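Example 3.2
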Amino acid sequence: MDLIFRVRKSDASARLSDLRTKSGTLTLPEFFPVYNPNKPIVTPEEMRGMGIRALITNSYIIYKSEDLREKALEQGIHSLLGFNGIVMTDSGAYQIYRYGDVEISNREILEFQHAIGSDIGSILDVPMSSEISRREAEKGVIRTLKNAEEWSELRDNLRGTLWVGTPQGSVHIDLVEYSSRRIRELDFDYNGVGSLKVALERYDFTLQAKHFLLVRSILKSGKPFHFWGIGHPSTFALFAALGADSFDSAAYALYAEQGRYMTPHGTLQLDDIDEFPCSCPVCMRYTPKEIKELPREERVRLIAKHNLYVSIAEIRKVREAIRGEWLWELVQERTRFHPKLHMALEYVLKNWKGLLEIREPFSKSSGLLYSGPETFFRPEVIRARDRVRNVVFGRHIMRRLYGRVPLGLKYAYPFGQTVFPYEEEVIDEPSDEELVSSLLSYQFHPSLKELGKGARIRRSKRTGMPREVMKDGVTIGFIRPSDGMFVPTLQGAELMLKLLPSPRSRVCVKKRFEEIVARGTTVFVKFVDWADPQIRPKSEVLVVNTRDELLATGKAVLSGREYRDFDENHPFILIRRHKLPREV
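Structure, written as tokens:
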């Protein structure tokens, strides 16, 4: 069976990934607008025409209406809504938060969601505010986990629908940890993280980020993470960078009812706008004056559509930032527009740097742009400062973000790709030996400094940049133009293997998979006996057998700290070079 969740690319802690559902495959990160069938401000058909590929609706609201319930059971949820995309359903948990309880059991709402054909369903958990008492939080956690365990007992009868499990506990850390560990054990298809009501209404993004990262640190990394109730486009970049794969909200409609006009930088009041700062179809067709003069129902509908267009554009920009590896730059830009968003960014960079570094790619093809003092605390910057201390070589250069950097790392990421205001370009050139020794020491381990002695570099005739690395007349690797990283040949990898202490830069495959990997097959999670925990996405690695003999070289897709959390058929290492020929 195909993978349900597959990571294609990473940046910061965000993943550009594929989520397979019975109605099709969705690219994450994604925003699911909430559709209320009792208040159809923007219809699902209109949403689909706007480019929305997935939405969420409340299965409890549908269940409570006899007419909607019968149609949903007879036609299915997609036909009922008139939407041929992916439909996620909430269980009525929000009604528990608003009204204290619902008139349905957890089992009934689980079976109903499955019967109407929901692509993604949810258990009846107990959402909490940031101000709930510990006693009430304990009761909510007990009820949530009881319902989660009931789902687990029913799971064989509910297959085909992807199920979200959401830990609870509010601000009570021990309750959140306990709830998260139990949800992890039950092994839901989709991880949920609940936004904390009241705190969210007060724009306490720091508390939201702290709660999200605490839950993320416990639940399995190999599942997508849905952050419930996060719906303002200005927040998408930050929370995606922290690891959220999807969001949902009705804010687009609720804001429209209040005359609030969304932008990627914040919210404006319609009454205060003279010109629309947007080129969506609504803003291109109408002026603010014309919309203000419309009947209220039509005015709300048009502003809601604009708010959706902005949300769609922003989540697309987040995905493109992951592809282009400039997500942190987007985060720093977006958080500049609201002090509380910026406070949250500063908090997570200073207090969660270890967790954020685990998923941070080892190198990037884009430049690293200084975007304010918080740049000093970005995970890839801290990692570079830590690793460069182990590189010992004669000549150095001073870089504001990194301190003393060996001249041999002049072209390596991030040192050679950092743009810092008023920092002068380095004119001096490293010798071949300086470059190779420094790069191998930094990228892999200081023990490889010896391999650089006597190395020679062949440079590009067009650009003069280093390309081919040779030693004793043999090509041992290449310097990648995009990031200045060393990519070993098989001969180079053999030399590296003799010097590198185990388990550095290695992935060891089980005996029964040795031959197919040596013939170039991707290393899937189930192939792996052990791996260096310091491997990060985009790390260059040596693939060995249990006797520490080289089978292949490749590039990591996942972190060496997280790969065990993924489906056994998820790719871990993409093979570059292999010892045996491919079978014909």
